[in-house]
Amino acid sequence: MDHSGLHGEETLDEAKLRLTSRLCRLRAERPDTFVGERSGYMPLPMTTACAFAYARLLDDEADVVVLVRRLGRRLERLGGWGDHTIVLPPGEWTDVLADAPVSGGTRRLADVVGEESVVVLARPRRG
Questions:
Q1: CA 69 to chain CA centroid, nearest Å
Q2: Cα–Cα distance between 44 and 60 in angstroms, integer?
Q3: What region does 52 belong to: left with phi over 0, alpha with psi -120 to 50, or beta?
Q4: Which of 26, 46, 96, 100 could form a disulfide bond with 86, CB atoms 3.0-4.6 angstroms apart?
Q5: What is the chain's alpha carbon radius of gyration, rounded to the nearest angstrom?
Q6: What is the spatial distance between Cα 54 and Cα 10, in angstroms, rounded to a whole number?
Q7: What pTM was estimated for this model as a whole?
Q8: What is the pLDDT along the chain (127 residues), one digit of tens a residue?
Q9: Mind listing the domains of the chain with CATH numbers?
Q10: Residues forming a β-bridge with 39
Q11: Beta strands in 1-127 (DSSP E)
């Protein structure tokens, strides 16, 4: 995922506001994914401890994926993501923050996360 130029000269406060706004909008659009009997949670496998990820489920199907970078200094010492991967649920996704398509399956973290601290993917809504 190429996030270059996404934020331009955005300040940290502006970036936080953009992230919060988009996540609140996503939660408002998909309330059953986050709360209630139809919602659920599933951790996603990856090959590094420098990130963690999970899927929010709707009716036992992945509907939203959250991927968070962690251990930034360690990741930097390792020279970045290298060949580390994540297994995303199959199908097509939309990066909520970059408004870009992402395919499911085994993907290189460098391609999905890049330099971002957090990536949120949502299943495109039908109809």
A1: 10
A2: 14
A3: beta
A4: 46
A5: 15
A6: 27
A7: 0.85
A8: 444 444 568 788 988 898 899 999 999 999 999 999 999 999 999 998 889 999 999 999 999 999 998 877 887 887 778 888 999 999 999 999 888 999 999 999 889 988 888 899 999 876 5
A9: 12-122 (2.60.40)
A10: 58
A11: 39-43, 51-58, 61-69, 85-95, 100-108, 118-122
- Tokens coding 52: 């963690």
Largest CA distance in the chain: 46
CA dihedral sign of residues 120, 2, 87, 79? negative
In the numeric block, the tokens 């580390």 are attached to: 84
- Which amino acid, residue 21? S
Chain Cα centroid distance, residue 53: 7
**Please, are residues 81 and 110 in contact by the beta-carbon 8 Å criterion?**
yes
Instruction: Indicate the SS3 state at residue 48.
Output: coil
